[in-house]
Amino acid sequence: MRKSHFTGFAITVLATFFAIVAANPCEIVLGSPFGNQIVIANPLCALTRFTEAFNRREAKSSKPTPQATADGASTSSSECERINKAIRSLEKQIEDHQAKLAAYIADPYAQDNLGILRDAPNDELRRKIIEGRIAKLQKEIQTFSDEIEKLKVELKHKGC
């Protein structure tokens, strides 16, 4: 609860900084409910320091688990989990598209919800529609597979 209160307070203070800086770039006067006033001579500098302090506080409260990578940089476990989640999602899409493709190849007319095949004027056009739909599904499956490979390389690079 305290974190969300601080976050709301920080957003309010940042909005106040921006509003006052826009009105008077030379100095800023902040008042408190207790009657105290703070005069800041360089508001952009103060805003930068405030933002850095806020980010440090947020980083301490969330405490991501760093993991060392091959190049010495650190990667949080949440980033690794995000990539793994994306891979799982793409694998699910591949399964769904393979099922659609198999069903369409088995009976294209059963999958013709919009009546495009039924309303086609001749067999040649129907054949092209069917081939086009099959090619589209195969291309999407290949695109998903390529994206999975890219994400696996990224996982390896990050040392996840």
Description:
The structure is a single chain. The protein is 70% helix and 9% strand. It has a two-stranded antiparallel sheet. Strands 3-4 form a two-stranded antiparallel sheet. The chain is built from 5 helices and 4 strands; from the N terminus they run αββαββααα. A hairpin with a 5-residue loop joins strand 3 and strand 4 (74-76). The radius of gyration is 28 Å and the shape is elongated. It has helices at residues 2-23, 43-62, 77-106, 116-119, 123-158; strands at residues 28-31, 37-40, 66-68, 74-76. The chain has 160 residues and is mainly α. The protein has 2 domains: 2-63; 74-158. The longest helix has 36 residues, at 123-158.
Write a concise keyword list for the protein shown above.
single chain, 160 residues, mainly alpha, 2 domains, two-stranded antiparallel ribbon, 4 strands, disordered N terminus
Blueprint (SSEs and pairs):
Elements: H1 2-23, E1 28-31, E2 37-40, H2 43-62, E3 66-68, E4 74-76, H3 77-106, H4 116-119, H5 123-158
Antiparallel strand pairs: 1-2, 3-4
Helix pairs in contact: 1-2, 3-5
Number of strands: 4
Category from helices, strands and their pairing: mainly alpha
Q: What is the strand arrangement across the widest sheet?
A: 1-2
* Average pLDDT figure: 76
State the helical fraction. Answer: over 70%
Low-confidence stretches: 1-6, 13-24, 63-72
Termini distance?
A: 32 Å
Whole-number tally of structural domains: 2
Basic shape: elongated
Radius of gyration, in Å, reads: 28 Å
The helix/strand series, from N terminus to C terminus, equals: HEEHEEHHH
- β-sheet strand percentage: 5-15%
Oligomer: single chain
Report the sheet with the most strands, covering strand number, pairing sense and barrel closure: 2 strands, antiparallel
Total count of helical runs of at least 4 residues: 5
